[in-house]
Design goal:
The protein is an alpha+beta fold and 419 residues long. It has 2 domains: 108 residues, no CATH class; 292 residues, Rhodopsin 7-helix transmembrane proteins (Rhopdopsin 7-helix transmembrane proteins, Up-down Bundle), CATH 1.20.1070. It has 12 helices and 12 strands. The protein is elongated, with a radius of gyration of 41 Å. 22% of the residues are buried. GO terms for molecular function: G protein-coupled GABA receptor activity.
Length: 419
Amino acid sequence: DSLRGTEYSRFHGYTYDGIWAAALAIQYVAQKREDFLTHFDYRVKDWELVFLEALRNTSFEGVTGPVRFYNNERKANILITQFQLGQAEKIGEYHSQLSHLDLTLGKPVRWVGRTPPKDRTLIYIEHSQVNLTIYIVSASASVIGIIVACVFLAFNIKYRNQRYIKMSSPHLNNLIIIGCMLTYMSVIFLGLDTTLSSVAAFPYICTARAWILMAGFSLAFGAMFSKTWRVHSIFTDLKLNKKVIKDYQLFMVVGILLAIDIAIITTWQVADPFYRDTKQLEPRHHESMDDVLVIPENEYCQSEHMTIFVSIIYAYKGLLLVFGAFLAWETRHVSIPALNDSKHIGFSVYNVFITCIAGAAISLVLSDRKDLVFVLLSFFIIFCTTATLCLVFVPKVRLVLVELKRNPDKRVRATLRPM
């Protein structure tokens, strides 16, 4: 009492009725068994049965209502209340002895809202997917980019014997274009999920994303990297000694980069293949339905050791990007349009460097924001690829179709400005 102060237990009435029930049971047994006081032993099973029978026959009006027992449980009336205007109101009673529900003993039942309340909160799992309109727009932009790349490829093949195109290594130009076409194609696979395909096909979509994007990067950036490396090798010698680097050597550089990609991705897929994984996000209430909780669920490409393989790829590609940016910076003063497109290749390398870093950061930080991640990654891929194509090939198209047609005998002179 000193701890509770003026507060009293709400179970005191049940305690009182319980003591009365025990007393009446003892009285009942004493009347039925004359040897109760002399032979009672609580360890004897017969006495337990006698007291259970006594409780079943006990019936009285207690302070908490009628007290009766059935199957070792108290049979009591059930008070039914409803929460109305901020407080619980009595609307009826259920008489267990009579199995009768009486709704005339209190206030009338009130149903506020369109329907009676549900007895539980309904949970809906909402499969998150890329907005279809966003996906169609991005995929259409990628298809247009592929068409533009095909135009550049046809141009490069048709005019491959023109002096300006021939000296710029047309075969390497073809690799750049093919790589750009693959990176465009990766956007289409990036937005595919089980709503547009199937659960069984999802691991194959994950594999296609990795193969296409890595191959496209190695072909496009590898070709630009090798061309920049050739210029750096030639023009870092201040005496401009002749240092011949054949196209096949540049193809070998691209081939090595592509072989490294194939080795990494093959090891990954054989030792630790992709599978579909899901993650449930923060639940929210339904916008128009009461008592409905919506749990968004995202699906991901996952593997047991994905972090290790992704770290290896990021480290390898990161070093390649840094070295490519270094070579582009070192050759920034070289002006030899026909040989290495130094300015344009350099700008392309910087462009790829910045967008790759931004894309990698976004994919890690905003991984749960599916629409936002897809929009940003698609934008970076399409922008970077389109900028690369335009920087590398628009000047060639302009020069071949305009300047060379005006003056077919025009020569291209190499210059090297001091740093």
